Amino acid sequence: xxxxxxxxxxxxxxxxxxxxxxxxxxxxxxxxxxxxxxxxxxxxxxxxxxxxxxxxxxxxxxxxxxxxxxxxxxxxxxxxxxxxxxxxxxxxxxxxxxxxxxxxxxxxxxxxxxxxxxxxxxxxxxxxxxxxxxxxxxxxxxxxxxxxxxxxxxxxxxxxxxxxxxxxxxxxxxxxxxxxxxxxxxxxxxxxxxxxxxxxxxxxxxxxxxxxxxxxxxxxxxxxxxxxxxxxxxxxxxxxxxxxxxxxxxxxxxxxxxxxxxxxxxxxxxxxxxxxxxxxxxxxxxxxxxxxxxx
Length: 295
What we know:
Layout: H1 2-23, E1 24-30, E2 34-36, E3 42-49, E4 55-56, E5 65-71, E6 77-78, E7 92-93, E8 98-104, E9 115-124, E10 138-143, E11 146-156, E12 164-176, E13 179-187, E14 192-200, E15 208-211, E16 217-224, E17 227-233, E18 239-246, E19 254-257, E20 264-267, E21 270-272, E22 278-281, E23 284-287
Protein name: tRNA modification GTPase
Organism: Lentisphaera araneosa HTCC2155
């Protein structure tokens, strides 16, 4: 009799599980499996409403909720910074509708530890029968790169111009499946302000970098045999300029800093126009109307 009860219970749980899956389908996806330490980890949550009714998600008891489960390299559950964190707060799903939400998961969970993380999701809603089911865990790795260059510079205090705060940036190489990439990390003793992927890194090819008088960070990397990218970042790592140059037979673009004025300029090369000569696809360039051998 006990065995029969167990079988019936398992059957009921299984039916409830598949009922919920039939009513609502959802899952998590990441744009890559490996991340550099302190890099933004972007997750996409996709949900399909097959329940035949309108569903709302929020903080009240009659709304649905999504719980993100993060397990660190020590196999410990990582708590959210905000205990009430609900990524789908405010989401409204019409019957039959599909929606995707994109957010940076490490803005809500501590994921700076090096190693292997597991991420899954569990959704509940009062209007849905059955039990919440947990998605299959997604595995991602947080890794360190190799520091190629480091520079410390000063940032003027916003309230007292006589106070200068020290800040640093590092040029870092990071191994990816498709090849090494070069990254920029901006930080001080308290904060990491930015960790950005700049483009492909070729061993032996110099990454040019410097700081101007306004504490803007300049980098110039060679992404193809005759193509260079000059990027300008604020002292917090926000990008301010993105300029592509093509080397000509007469000269190659060179980054130069004026020691008296503190300005950083690019001399030589031919400036290309976005949309006409090239388009940006992530961290790569697709060249147009230029020599075929440049691609």
